[in-house]
Amino acid sequence: ILPEAFANDAQRMARFSREAQVLASLNHPNIAAIYGLEEADGVRCLVLELVEGPTLAERIAAGPLPTEEALNIARQIAEALEAAHEKGIIHRDLKPANVKVTPEGMVKVLDFGLAKALEDDPSSIDISESPTLSVAATQAGVILGTAAYMSPEQARGQAVDKRADIWAFGVVLFEMLTGKRTFQGETISDTLAAVLRAEVDWEAVPAGTPASIRKLLRRCLTRDRKQRLQAIGDARVELESPEPSDLAGVASSKPAPGRYAVSWVVAATLIAVVVIAFAFLYFRQAPLERQGAKLQLLPPDGFGFGSIAVSPDGSRLAFTAVDSSGNAQLWLRPLNALTAQPLPETEGASYPFWSPDSRFIAFFADNKLKKIDASGGSPQTLCDLIDAKGGARGGSWSRSGVILFGVSAFHPALLYQVSDKGGEPRPVTTLEAFSNAAFRYWPSFMPDGRHFLYWAFNGVDPDRTGIYLGSLDAPDARLLVRADTGAAYAPDAAGGTGYVLFVRERTLMAQAFDPRRLEMTGDAMPIAQRAGVDLSAFRSKFSASGNGVLVYGAGSGTSQLLWFDRTGTPLGSLGPPGNHIDFRISPDGRRVAAQRFVETGRENIFLLELARGTSARFTFEPTYHAGPVWAPDGSRLTFFKGRDGRWSIWEKASSGAGAQRLLLSTSNDVLPNDWSPDGRFLLYSERAPNTRMDLWVLAARGVGSDPPRGTPFVRTQWDENFARFSPDGRWVVYQSNQTGRYEIYVRKFPADDSGPGGKLISTDGGIEPRWPRRGKEIFYIGSDNMLMAVDVRSGATIEAGVPRPLFPTRRVGVLRYDVTADGQRFLVATPTDEAVSTPVTVVLNWFDELRRRAPTK
What we know:
Blueprint lengths: L3 H4 L2 H15 L9 E7 L2 E6 L7 H6 L5 H20 L12 E3 L5 E3 L4 H5 L33 H4 L6 H17 L9 H10 L13 H10 L11 H9 L16 H28 L8 E5 L6 E7 L5 E7 L5 E7 L6 E2 L7 E5 L5 E6 L2 E6 L6 E5 L7 E6 L4 E6 L7 E5 L6 E2 L11 E7 L5 E7 L8 E6 L2 E9 L5 E5 L4 E8 L2 E8 L4 E2 L4 E4 L4 E2 L4 E2 L1 E3 L4 E4 L6 E6 L5 E9 L1 E6 L5 E6 L7 E6 L5 E3 L7 E6 L5 E8 L2 E8 L7 E4 L4 E7 L5 E8 L3 E8 L11 E4 L5 E6 L5 E6 L6 E6 L10 E2 L5 E5 L6 E6 L3 E9 L3 E3 L3 E5 L8 E3 L6 E6 L8 E5 L1 H8 L4
């Protein structure tokens, strides 16, 4: 809570608000989040993430930390600092009391950058810059510094840059290793004097500390900041692979400039030979006790890693490589080779998985499940994907020849099974097996070929979202563990048991599982930090074999709202990065209503103001809120949320005032699509058991009826959805799969016949149409992720031109773009962390390390 004197200073509060917004943009698993600056009854406060667990100061008070644990914590602190420094944000008060370690081993750095936000005058330099408010201060709002962790330049009152954080990082690492203060004195003045002049007690560093870490400490704790370590990323790299040998007394020499490039070529060649030799020996035989090893693989030039799958025998890696336009293809890389090769005829592939004998790779493409021989040949289609609106959601292949797969369907989404020889897929789970569940994704077979894991999302009861154990021959399912993304089962042949792998707060966890009793045993243990996740698809980016090979990627699936013109030229960003699921630009173009990830099953709607760049939460209930639709005059927002076991349509004033009002609730799920320009009719989708997804119309005058009643607009045996009114309200554009794939159609409103009707607008597939209020074009996303435009003339009849491409998009999932009323600018949710050069990490023999840490019975 901010001190009254501080909160009543309008100029200071305005600057503080700007700083807090910058700090809130820090989206990193090792940084405790700042959620907002709030006011209630005249009291101003910051809303911060609640982080469980002891502070690092409390850990150090009990004595020095084991070297391995200290280096692991230091690496995570370095990752947090690196992410902040990349955004130009400095912590300014890094100390053990501002670091917490959760029960899962995740490090959280607290109070990031608040020193600057809380300072009295941005032009002043004050050694007391610190977010720590002293309870014992005699003057309200006095901000006290933490002398023992200040850099020499801070102690002298000089300007501060990121190298001050690097100094504090060295002080914290020293204390973790030694259990004692680096600099101390009886008074603050004595402590500051020690910071400026005292020698560091290097003899206190444990003898077993790697030489490279000793060198790192000295570089961090160099008083001359020009000679100090210049980038915290260099510390993070050193901590990821510390030199184990003691080289403290060995002098190093710098190669002559003319030989520098040659030295690197020779070194790279030697590394390649060593890796190939190691891999050959590793895959040739499996000794009883092996040392773990970790290496990183880069994607092919010009591509980034998409989905990854290691073969069951641990010898090869199948992955999708994605180019800058989002186009994907399936690639194969033996782990004992230096290069990967693309597999022919696999364009558009996603989510590969292996046959149990490691001979075939199954994957999804063209709305079909396919398989291809890993040794070569053309793909074979196994089946069409049923009810897939947003593509596939993972698969698994049993030894008995059964393939399970999930699809991104509208509520409910079932798992399907099909023979590995091909055929007609059929549901393997029913709605009754898991009441009120909306989605079932990411299946993973157990060794018996009957039981399987899968991830289920419940939009009505988020506490029931997690990893479930299901069976092919029984309808019941049992919750094993709460999780935000899918899991996998990794059998441990040598250990006689297996592990369930899942991600919790970006940490890859492993928990022993008894395959005979079908129960989790022991505690979940962390095995990899910063494991990748894709929250837009609820998937984890890892794969494991049965002989101890683990592969995991990076990334969080977050996106940034970016503005583009009609040529695809970026025009700027809107709001902080996040997991944007659905958003709409307001009719006046001044605000954006966006559904954002808060917690799985508890997604909520936020309002972003374009002029000020602010973001405010609009819905607050702990349930799923989605699909915001603006009223024509911008005064209200219509949306759907989970209630009474289904999705219903609600409304609330866009000012945020007042309570939510129920508009429509039926025995089926209903989702709003669009209001007519005159505000008289609401288009909505209804999921019916027999007719799938249909389009309905609710008259505004019928909202007050008890219960409100809608009338069907397009009700067929196919799926119709994502409808928008024309600017004059006489036509409706929507997508339908009546031809076997999604295309864009326009139909007269009100409907003048009882058939499906509709004029075909797209020519080669299309989804998510948009018809801007002042435009004479229809926009949609083509089958190759290209944003398309079609000229239309509407009146008593409608005429459409030939679709033309505008620019490629890199959207995340579905419902990820909108267009301004004049059709000149586009807001697109674009991935933020899928850098082309991001490697995947390969860990060998991770089973052995896990058994040493927690022997299984």
